[in-house]
Structures are given as C-alpha cells and as structure tokens.
Amino acid sequence: MTTKAKLYTWDDMPLENMNPLLDRRVISGERMMIAQVLLKKGSVVPKHSHENEQITFIVSGILRFLLGEEQDEEVIVRSGSVLVIPSNLPHSALALEDTVDVDIFCPPREDWLDGSDDYLRED
Asked: What is the mean pLDDT of the chain?
C-alpha cells in the first residue's frame, strides 16, 4: 500500500463554531490530530479528561489551565509556550485574552471527529 503526503492550510479548513466564544479547525491523520482553537477572552473549556495525550501550543494570547481531579494545580500558558497534558489527566481552561491555540492529540480525538464533544458545544 502506498501512502501519500497531503498538504493543508488552516484557511482552507472549515471553521467549526463550538459556542459563542470558541471556534476550531481540525486536521486528522490516521494516528494523530492537530487542531487550531480560537478562544475569545472569557471562553471556558470545562473540566474533562481523555485517553489522548495532548500537546497545547499557544500561538498568541494566554490560557489558564486547572489540572487534576480537584483542579488544584494552576498553570498559566502564554504565547510561545507549550503544555503537555498526559492521558486521563482532568483539566479545564480559561482564556485570559483572545487566544490562538494549536492542540495536537495522539490518538485522534474520536469525540471531536464524530461530534460527540458536547462539553464544548454548550452556550
């Protein structure tokens, strides 16, 4: 079986409006996924966890993450910083500024691909 590389540009990918303060674009390969997440100041990503390892790179803006079951560890992630979130670690986030975030997941987030990610779709 021959595999071929495929080139994408963010601007050509559909912009998915998740809620009034959060939009995203997703590109998925077979074993990993990358997403551009656009958060307006005040956007909240509710506490959740997933089996997927996550690498979050902040292109611009600032996110405040709360980590752990009790949400008792705070990490401020600023433009140019990268946060690695291990599998199954509960986490939430708050956009302290308008933020452009690039998330990489391994394996791909099935809930993001099949639309069952209701925790992000709340108004």
From this structure: 95
Enumerate residues 6+ apart whose C-beta is below 8 A from 91. Answer: 47, 48, 49, 65, 66, 67, 85
Residue 107: CB partners within 8 Å, gap ≥ 6?
31, 32, 33, 51, 52
Residue count (the chain): 123
For residues 4 and 108, what is the distance between their CA atoms, to the nearest angstrom? 19
14 DSSP 8-state letter = P
Summarised one tens digit per residue, pLDDT across range 24-56 is 999 999 999 999 999 999 999 999 999 999 999
Core vs surface per residue 54-81: b (16+ CB within 10 A) or e:
bebbbeebbbebbbeeeeeeeeebeeee
Distance CA 64, CA 116 (A): 25
Please name the amino acid found at residue 4: K
Contacts of residue 11, defined as CB under 8 A and 6 or more positions apart, other chains included, come to: none
Instruction: Tell if the pTM clears 0.90, that is, is over it.
Output: yes
Bridging pattern class, strands 73-78 and 62-67:
antiparallel
